[in-house]
Amino acid sequence: MSRLTSKDAATSKGAADQLSPAHFVPLADIMQSHDGALLSYMRDTNASDVVVTMPISVEIANKDVQKFLVTVAVTTQFDSPEPLSDEARRITPKHHQTVFAWIPADCYGTDDFGIYIDEVAIGETLKNGLVGEVIDKAAIEAAVIALADAC
After folding, report:
1. Is-contact 93 55, C-beta < 8 A?
2. Residue 47 and residue 117: Cα distance in Å, rounded?
3. Fewest CB atoms within 10 Å of the CB: 5, 15, 18, 55?
4. Alpha-carbon distances, residue 131 vs 8, 89, 96, 116, 118 (angstroms)
5. Between vectors from CA 53 to CA 52 and to CA 54, what angle results, nearest 5°?
6. What tens digit of pLDDT does each residue of 77-96 get?
7. What is the pLDDT of residue 3?
């Protein structure tokens, strides 16, 4: 698991965030060690910002197999996804495309809330499906609701 601290991000929300790491954790670890619940992982590690990663190969009609690293960031302390998106691209294996999504849990229930997905030239259906798979398998919706209640 690699870590990126919000101290490295010019867009962090303040001095209190300077020591808060963002955890990059494989979906497989959440599935095996935390019964598929991101919130369980976040509570066990005291993490407020997590990027769930999932490498996957997809056979595309009329094309060869394409490889992706799907990364879904769930944050409470970042104003912007850029430092996490940059780190996701940095850790993406060769011959894989990065699919990065950001979910600012601290904005849940406000007009600013949404799921922000970087542009990737793979088609909206595939991109949304890959992100949706991570969201479903890691129970991210439940984690976002619980995190928003705690903010």
Report:
1. yes
2. 22
3. 15
4. 26, 16, 15, 10, 11
5. 130
6. 999 999 999 999 999 999 99
7. 33
Q: What are the structural domain ranges in the chain?
A: 3-150
Residue 58: φ, ψ to 5°: -125, 130
Pair of tokens at residue 34: 């935390």
Q: What is the pLDDT of residues 105-133, one digit of tens each?
A: 999 999 999 999 999 988 899 999 999 99
Largest CA distance in the chain: 51
Q: Write the DSSP string, the chain.
A: --EEEGGG-TTBS-GGGGGPEEEEEEHHHHHHHSTT-HHHHHHHHT-SEEEEEEEEEEEPTTS-EEEEEEEEEEESSBS-SHHHHHHHHHHSPTT-EEEEEEEEGGGTTSTT---EE---TT-HHHHHHHHHHHHHHTTHHHHHHHHHHH-
What span, in angstroms and rounded, lies between the C-alpha atoms of 49 and 81? 11
